Amino acid sequence: QVQPVESGGGLVQPGGSLRLSCAASGFTLDDFNIGWFRQAPGKEREGVSCLTTSDDTTEYANSVKGRFTISRDNARNTVYLQMSRVKPEDTAIYYCAASYGYRCTLKTYHYAYWGQGTPVTVSS
After folding, report:
1. Residue 98 Cα distances to 22, 77, 91, angstroms
2. What's the helix, strand, coil split of the chain in %, to 5?
3. What is the C-alpha separation between 73 and 62, in angstroms, rounded?
4. Is the pLDDT assigned to residue 77 strictly greater than 90?
5. Cα dist from 81 to 42, 78, 107, 115, whole Å
6. Where in the chain does DSSP place strands (E)?
7. Tell me, what's the pLDDT at 30?
8. For the segment 47-62, what is each residue's pLDDT rounded down to a tens digit?
């Protein structure tokens, strides 16, 4: 069963850093592209970053470009989202998702498999 599993969320102060993990359960990273999404209270789910695993190309939403970094560890079969210089507006539940396809996208409808989410709160 293809199941992304997120972890690493928590409370972080503005300007701080946090690393989220997405463990690939039931599949290997090479078989799927991976995306990170977030959903703040009262808002729609939005794409944050994604990784095309065939060539390690990445994509970022403008709101996080230069602050967040997506990467992977093949030995651990895990994708990470390194969050730096976080802002209160980064507060949301963060989801990891897996998709088929030639290239990853930041569109939710491209992703067939979703994790349960991990909450991130940016507050002093």
Report:
1. 10, 13, 22
2. 5, 50, 45
3. 25
4. yes
5. 23, 10, 17, 14
6. 3-7, 10-12, 18-25, 33-39, 46-52, 57-60, 68-73, 78-83, 92-99, 113-114, 118-122
7. 84
8. 999 999 999 999 999 9
